[in-house]
Design brief:
about 325 residues, mainly alpha, 2 strands
Length: about 325
């Protein structure tokens, strides 16, 4: 059978997401809305981590910036959609400004610097009067019934998740994508080839920040109240990192698989095991990392190679996972 194109599958998933809410109760609507929010943010992190190879451990800071942008503007009677536009622009601008010096660092130095950015922004928000300081800030309530609220935010997070996947696909196939993947392979070689490393890395981080900020802005309106400690929680960044690595960094669908898998497994374990669910989830993540170090999508690549290899599955051992086509 002729293979269905990426955009064909994309249209099919879009149609399914439009129909899914009509078969869910409000509890599952909230669960899947949360899953879609994490999909959007994991896809955003994948652009700077998976494609460019820069471990942005503080990327969750842009979630907080986006959330506070929407909260502050709506608190001052600005409409939601205009506030959401600002929640995209402001994190992107911050990533651009700080990216010029910070992205000159590499490896664990860059990772530590991004953690510092997270705590610096947290401290700033806690000490600004118009953000509510450490007490947090309330957001105007959604003007509708509980059912309409559930549908609105499900579709909003679904749109952000699909946007994140589409942007990853477009970036990966663009000049920017080729440049940042060349930088990941060898930054020195990329510079010799004439690639402006700083400009391309800043562009990748800005796109990542804008997508993350949009998710944070939607969350702020959805939750109705935000506070600095929760919006700039470093655990958010760590969780995103785990989702990308578990699914498959650098692929298009890896962050989707990681986010959906971890969130749904976490929800199931919480509902069945209660207080020890985090310990069990941690063991699952640990063993997945040990036995599938390249991410869950690498299993698909191995099966693909084994099926096409004339020598059988053994001939594909140790081969590169690029047979998956980056999907």
């Amino acid at each position: 059978m002729k293979r269905v194109s990426f955009w064909g599958w994309f249209a099919l998933v879009l149609a399914l997401l439009v129909a899914v809410p009509f078969g869910l109760n409000e509890y599952w609507m909230r669960v899947f809305s949360t899953v879609l929010m994490w999909v959007a943010m994991a896809g955003a992190l994948n652009i700077i981590l998976g494609l460019a190879g820069y471990p942005a451990f503080g990327n969750g800071a842009f979630f907080g910036v986006g959330g506070y942008t929407v909260a502050v503007l709506m608190h001052n009677h600005v409409g939601f959609w205009l506030a959401m536009a600002a929640a995209v622009v402001v994190p992107g601008a911050i990533a651009t400004v700080i990216g010029v010096p910070v992205l000159r660092l590499r490896g664990h130095y860059f990772a530590i610097a991004t953690i510092g950015v997270n705590f610096a922004l947290l401290s700033l928000i806690q000490n600004l009067g118009f953000t509510g300081g450490g007490s947090g800030l309330s957001v105007p309530l959604f003007p509708g019934s509980a059912a309409s609220l559930s549908f609105f935010f499900f579709y909003l997070f679904a749109a952000l998740a699909l946007l994140s996947v589409a942007v990853t696909k477009i970036v990966r196939s663009s000049r920017l994508g080729y440049a940042i993947r060349a930088i990941q392979a060898s930054e020195e070689a990329a510079l010799v080839m004439g690639i402006n490393g700083t400009a391309y890395k800043v562009a990748a981080w800005a796109i990542s920040a804008m997508l993350t900020g949009a998710a944070g802005g939607a969350y702020a309106y959805w939750n109705g109240y935000i506070e600095p400690v929760s919006m700039f929680d470093i655990v958010t960044s760590v969780k995103l990192f785990i989702m990308v690595l578990i699914g498959g960094a650098g692929t298009i669908l890896g962050p989707v698989v990681g986010a959906v898998g971890i969130e749904l497994v976490s929800e199931y374990l919480w509902s069945t095991l209660g207080g020890i669910h985090l310990a069990v989830l941690g063991l699952i993540i640990l063993f997945t990392g040990i036995f599938v170090p390249r991410g869950l999508l690498s299993l698909r690549a191995r099966r693909f190679r084994a099926a096409r290899s004339p020598e059988g599955p053994s001939s594909s051992v140790g081969a590169d996972d690029s047979a998956s086509g980056g999907v």
